[in-house]
Amino acid sequence: MGDVEELLVPGGMTHGRESAWQVIVGVNKFRLDKEEPLATRSIDNAAVLQQQVEQLRRIRESRDGVLFSFCRCSYLAGFAQTLRGQGAGGGLGGRLGAEDHCMGGFGCAAKAAPMSQKESPNLLELAVEAARRRCTVGEISDALEFGGWGRYVPTDSVISGVYGQAYGEDAADIQSAMAEVRVFEERAGRRPRVLVAKMGQDGHDRGAKVIATGLADLGFDVDIGPLFQTPEEVARQAVDADVHCVGVSSQAAGHRTLVPQLRKALQDAGVGHVLLVIGGVIPQEDYQFLYDNGVGCIFGPGTRIPAAAKEMLAKLPLN
After folding, report:
1. I want to staple 193 with a disulfide (CB 3.0 to 4.6 A). Which of 78, 99, 183, 243 is the partner?
2. Domain B12-binding, which positions (predicted)?
3. Half-sphere exposure of 194 (CA within 13 A, CB side)
4. CB atoms within 10 A of CB 62
């Protein structure tokens, strides 16, 4: 039971992996001296985007415009009616009717749609019917967003203390990294500040949060960006937060497209001197491409956070 109890304490499993007490073959023990390259499939993101845009264009050109307008307005009317039933009052949602978003040519007779005559319209039913009439997912979600509910924006915060407790603050590499953070602070006049960013459609944020927590426990000031940011949004946040470093977490193979765009966005925003690093699942054959596009450090699976922190500190700008 002692082993189980040790794993149940906060950070127990993390400590087990980091200290090599819990053996993970190929990660913290029995690693090969020379790793064999793994075959990876490269997807042309630009070609996929072009294909998807073309499909949307064909759908919009081929669908029945009258039925589409009728169905979309029915959806909006039913949605607005639902909001009124929930006491939306005088706000945008409470005032919204089909006439506010009619797509033209039908006189907004959609208010007579059977679906919108129910006292409590079923929004899922309306959405399914809208899809049958070839409304796109974006158009359906826009109806919800502009109809009064808005769009959910998650807020991320850094939790401090978890990584340090799991690893043990008396560990030599922890102490060494924290000492280098203090040296940087003395030289720069402030603590090193890093923005951890997730771009594109990559929604795997657990690793990014672990890294953010670990760096915070080592003495970094850490900002976490929301999911699904564009490179331009990351650059603006980097400017607003006045960071020394932007750390990109890549778990879904978007780095070949997004990282060069981010480097350009940082340069356009006047912060091209900011250190750009990336971590996550990145094929070895992509490393040189990323270095050539302005990446200063690359951290793959199994990287120890204190080691990553020290490598970053060695390259951080002092201003």
Report:
1. 243
2. 191-319
3. 30
4. 8
